[in-house]
Amino acid sequence: MMEAQISGISDVIKLAVASVFLLPAIIIMIRAMTTRRGRLIDLQNLVRDRLRGADKVQVAESEKALNALLQRSLLANLGIRFSLLAAVLVSLVIAGAPVSALVSVDLTKTVFVLFLLAMLSMAISLGMFLLEVYLGKSSRTPVKH
């Protein structure tokens, strides 16, 4: 009986520790996306400044560039939100495993579903990030400094 409890506690600790290693990866992803988002804001401001006193051709080009930057910003924002959601879900997995052992309630399925949702959220976040990078590389919107 005691060996089963020790084995169960050991399994809970392994699950919690394994999930803890996901948090730094998620934080690095959030940093990368917020850095890109900041750069997009700078470029948007540059294009808006260029709109002042521009002729009709320049206005059309600038508006096109601004719309592309706004689309990319939306993707970056969504990516950041999904990464934050993944971090919260991973934190719940980390908290849920020991709570399950302490309270003697089987939260195995709940913790597993939280883990799957965290991974799905992270995959969506990475997809948003890759799409934003792809749009940035394919649009090659010229922004003169």
TrEMBL record:
The UniProt entry, under InterPro entries, shows:
DUF2721 (IPR021279)
Q: Which Pfam families match?
A: DUF2721
Keyword terms, alphabetized: Membrane, Transmembrane, Transmembrane helix
Which segments cross the bilayer?
12-30, 82-105, 111-135
Q: Which domain of life is it from?
A: Bacteria
UniProt protein name: DUF2721 domain-containing protein
Please give the organism: Candidatus Propionivibrio dominans
